[in-house]
Amino acid sequence: xxxxxxxxxxxxxxxxILRAPGGRSLGAGWRRVPxxxxxxxxxxxxxxxxxxxxxxxxxxxxxxxxRSLGSLGWVGGGCASATCGRALASDNDMARPxxxxxxxxxxxFYDLCWGPWTDDIEFFxxxxxxxxxxLDLMCGTGRVALAFARAGWTVDGVDRSVAMxxxxxxxxxxxxxxxxxxxxFHRGELTGFRLPFVFDAAVxxxxxxxxxxxRSERVQALRNVHRHLVRSGRLLVQIDTPRSYESARFxxxxxxxxxxxxxxxxxxxxxxxxxxxxxxxxxxxxxxxVDRSGRCLKQGTSExxxxxxPTAEVVRELREAGFSTTRLFGxxxxxxxxxxxxxxxxxxxx
Length: 350
Ligand SMILES: C[S@@+](CC[C@H](N)C(=O)[O-])C[C@H]1O[C@@H](n2cnc3c(N)ncnc32)[C@H](O)[C@@H]1O
Fold this sequence. Notes:
It is built from eleven helices and twelve strands. It is of the alpha/beta class.
């Protein structure tokens, strides 16, 4: 973290993994950009402008079997090994992503990328203090909810996705019995869910609020959250700032490669974002699990649409919903939000 584009969506991958953020000039959209502009953009993005290969902190790692990956025809970017750097996809591939709706495939792969990531959770726990009753909104596979429950909180998670909730509930089965009793997951829309209790605190993690595209629905959702909090209860909302979407202007693929089972399997996650409108970004993520020889074990594609929201706009919406905003953070170390922060955590009081 701490880089100009330290967005949790892009930079939050577990550390032991070969991390290869995008920027390789393979996508057709990216290629059409003249080289001087491309270099300037790459510099703004904090990446090596002319680099033809991804960097890796583990140069000695075996090269991903790029030929096999390339023959599957849709993995954008380049090989994650510092000693290889060869292309994995054809030029046209990233320019015309297929249309796959929703979170279905995302659920199958979500925890491989985000499951072990706890930077945000540790920060939330510090901000929220002693254990009480927590509402984890847009809770997904229960990453935040389960960590808080382990730390002694009583947690209710709400999400609209059956597939994500199924995974969250299945993780509960391996949970210590006492902690298990403290967690419940509910299917619901943020705008309309109702629970018969009030909570000491609530979180909306990992840039989830902007998945609600309509302003009036976001305000309605935040009013609903407000209704579920005790007086002076705190809400923490994490959003990516408009700055973090710079790569979407060029359609540059953001590639993460995850080494699983001591290298017996690899998970390749390739995200291409593009502006549909100045304030809406479409993200297409391709997921691939391969074995050591490059044989595909599983693949999928998921697609999201996200509203690009200035932090000040979310603050206005929170106020409209009845919250008073107390603090804005630009890192998980508690630094103040700055103009170049890649994400914001907004702390609001009910
Ligand atoms: C990026 S995931 C975040 C998961 C989780 N908060 C985390 O930090 O790991 C976004 C989640 O929001 C859920 N979601 C999207 N729109 C929603 C809505 N209107 N109401 C409830 N959940 C929603 C999706 O199903 C998905 O699980």
